[in-house]
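Allow me, if you will, to draw on your knowledge of protein folds for a short while. I have a record of one protein: its chain in single-letter code and its fold written as discrete structure tokens. I should value your view on which stretches of the chain appear to form regular backbone elements. Thank you for your consideration; the sequence and its tokens are set out here:
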Amino acid sequence: MPNQATNRFYYFTSAAIMKFFMHLAVAASLIATALCAPVTVPQVTAALATINTDVSALITVTVSFDGSAAQAANIENDAIKLIQANNAALAAIKATATPFSLADGTTIFNIVKGGEPNIEKALSSIVAQKAAIQRLGLTAAVHQTLINLSTSTEALIVALVGAAPAQLKSDATALGQKVTAAFSAAIAVYA
């Protein structure tokens, strides 16, 4: 027969466990509420601006590529960072009320349109470095990274076109097709 001290131990242990799970449930509820909070258009534009910054960083590291494995790792790291930025922007768009208003859609479209030449420049820089990449034996790795980057960019394009107001859908679609074509060309070089 358990003694009184053992009974108190079980009581306090079960009370502590119940209290822990209650706190866990409250914390989970607060996190879920925060995650479900609507995203604003300024948050979307900030996410897109981050992409433009990350594309510029990728251009810088690719143009200055010296053929070393360390520099190749820097290119890979910047490409991964860009994929993460694409995914963050995609999540922001999905959490925003859409379609965007014409004013918001125009602002967003202009940010993307302004960044498009840099996307082409980054891809051209990567293509220009193919011989050095081949010498390092990293052609397949760069090919896969380009595919991954293209996939995340394409998902973002689809979301942007879907969220665009009717007046901007054709322009957004054309811009998306231009970016997709640039990726397809770069991927084909490394295939």
Summary: The chain is about 85% helix and 0% strand. The two ends are 75 Å apart (CA to CA).
